[in-house]
Amino acid sequence: MVTFAGGEQAGDLRVFTGPRDELAAGRVSVLGATSGGRTGVSWAPRYPLQPGQRYTAVWQPLDGDRITATFTVPGLELAATTRVEAVFPSSDVVPENLLRLYIQFSAPMSRGGATRFVELVGEDDAPIAGAFVVPEQELWSPTDDRLTLFFDPGRLKQGVGPNLAAGPPLRAGQEVTLRVQAEWRDAHGAPLRESFEHTWQVVEADREQPRTDAWTVHTPETPQDPLRVDLPEVLDRALLNRMLFVETQAGTPVGGEVTVARGERAWSFAPSSPWAPGRYAISVDPDLEDLAGNSLERLFDEPLVEDQVGRPTLDRLRLVFTVGAS
């Protein structure tokens, strides 16, 4: 409950995540209900507020100046068990036009911490300003344990305003480090077990589309063996997990478990049941992308043709393989 005390008042009382200096026009407020009475005006959240999260209450009386107050929801002294499990790309090398990265946590996290607890620094240990586009609603997985961060697309696309004015956030030949601070709290209000760092070497921009004809498919030799695919370049980790499927020749999905390894350059599929002899196919979504956002269908930097926007030009690709009777 948030209350502004005073005489019987009316007006607009809203609560926002983050400190006062992060408020901006058009920002969406936290869901809640406002009520007035003889002692002032109060606000109650529709859902419980996050322990350890800072909030700013903004009260605009009908007759008077706006009043703001920042507060933090007390958190329980919980054991720090959550940690950063990995950052993707997990490789040590990334292109200058890297489009996105993922931070994978071991447990669900509280939202709203990306701008305060994550930073990208250069070799001089200075933060790289404006590298990420952080939307008001952070891009979390449905289980709140993986955060997606996008580099500013306007600075990556050649010839557009932000790119001409500031260039890409990353520069070939540079060494950059992503840091995640331990003060970030998980969904239960406990801080991370430890801070985390990952360093990449930046190389020249990647402006070529990935090609499935460059993949090496290792067919299972026994009914118990997994299907393995070696990739000639690093592809997007999250898309590799959900854009490749295994089907029978008739197109029936085969159940099993996908594993992505070797710095996102190896994909494998272990079927739930042993392979039956016959022909199968790896079904590949043409929207599968590399680290620079180049898909099997188009280059990220390719000019858009107005009448083709939203209209795919490729069907799903099928890489056929055979499992023998022996």
Provide an overview of this structure.
The protein is mainly beta and 326 residues long. It folds into three domains: 2-72; 84-203, Sandwich (Immunoglobulin-like); 212-323, Immunoglobulin-like (Sandwich), CATH 2.60.40.1220. It has four helices and 22 strands. It has helices at residues 114-117, 153-156, 161-166, 237-242; strands at residues 2-5, 11-17, 32-37, 40-45, 54-61, 67-72, 84-88, 93-95, 100-105, 118-121, 132-133, 139-140, 146-151, 175-180, 196-203, 216-218, 227-230, 244-248, 256-261, 266-271, 278-284, 317-323. The strands form six sheets. Strands 7, 9, 11, 12 and 13 form a five-stranded antiparallel beta sheet that branches. The protein starts with a strand and ends with a strand. The relative contact order is 0.13. The model has no long low-confidence stretch (mean pLDDT 88).
